[in-house]
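Duplicate of earlier report; Methyltransferase domain-containing protein input re-posted below.
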Amino acid sequence: MTDPAEFVAEFYHEADLRLAQAVPERALAVLDADCRRGHLGEVLKHVQPARTIVGLCADAREAGEAGGRLDRVLACDITTDLPDLAPASFDCVVIGDKLAGLREPLAALATLRTLLKPDGRLIAVVANGQHWRHLDALLCGDLQASNAGGVPPARSMGFANAIKLLLDAGFLPHIKDRRTQPPPPGWLDAAGPLAARLRLDGPTFAARTAAREFFIEATPIAGLPPDTAPYPPVTVGVCTNDADILADNLLASPCLAGDAHQVLRVEGATNAAEGLNAVIDSADHGLVVLAHQDVYLPRWWIARLWQQYEAARAAFGGEIGILGVYGVLGSEHGITRFGRVADREFLLDEGAPLPARVGSLDELLLVVPRHSPVRFDPVLGFHLYATDACLTAGQHGLPAVVIDAPCFHNSKQGSALPDAYRRSGNAIAAKWPDRLPLATPCGVVSLGGVS
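Output:
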């Protein structure tokens, strides 16, 4: 177990030096949204003297002390109040450990997003609610037990909750760093059966329960439609085998609240085609979203989908065969990746302009216009059916397109490919021998198999 004394070296007075390190070097105008006595800003100015640091502080006595260290201090409690500052005036906003304590989090984060420049960054540190100390306390029924050398449970969050919240607020977040305090010997062995019952990937579970805090960097998503923008309804379809995962993710998506959109669930499908083709054939609306059960769609997502769909039609001359949020294009020069997705603790942000025409899409989320001739082949099982669909679209002269509509893939599984994936690889190789090798998001399919 990590000695708590080791953490002391990571702080200067009350300034978290790891948090300071998370602030980009190029950030010269910084808002510290919970400056307290100004020690973090003091460190940031010491590292880069050209910086201008503005602090927000709820305590008048602390604000007076911070005023001697920062360039400007405003009386404001970010958990309840919103600062009156010029839009797009900061390179970086640091909210410290306040993310879990915001009373109106979406309103506060939306305001902070307006204060950032288009390429700005929001930096937060989140006490991990999945840390082994918190899990022990929950099992013991004594939540105060997790406070020993730690953080009150009310100020902690699961990493997935933080990612969902930031996406809803219009940010693209990723885990930049983590402070770890591993469990004592034997803890993981004891917790293993419970993790297995929940079908949690072992290495991922071990890494998450050892993380005491997550340091999150979030980028404003440009060009989001206004909340009042009208858009048509869509049909959303999902093949599901776990009601809890579905309820916690896809069905928890705020953009699907109410009855405006058609949501079709297929249980017990023997292959993806059986369920997804039935969804398309039963769809009431023009766009059919086919998502994994562990995908979360932010509150603005459907408006963004229509925005991007029209952009794709304009870019590629009319009709689209199939769309997705992540894909690849293979060529003699190699494989180019496209898309922006928060995928577990990782951020897939490939940087290539979108929308983009691709040769293969990831199955985590697909969009099929109802009138598209694209359907799915049952021979592919539950893998590589999107690659096959892209090839089918091409046969009809229609593009497969990646759009810029970020979502969260909250998978519990690890990165190892199952044997079924390799069987699907053999099936698609047999079906499209003249198109080999095939670049896919998870590898290259050739006559020799998947690599």
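The chain has a mean pLDDT of 92.

Merging into the original ticket.
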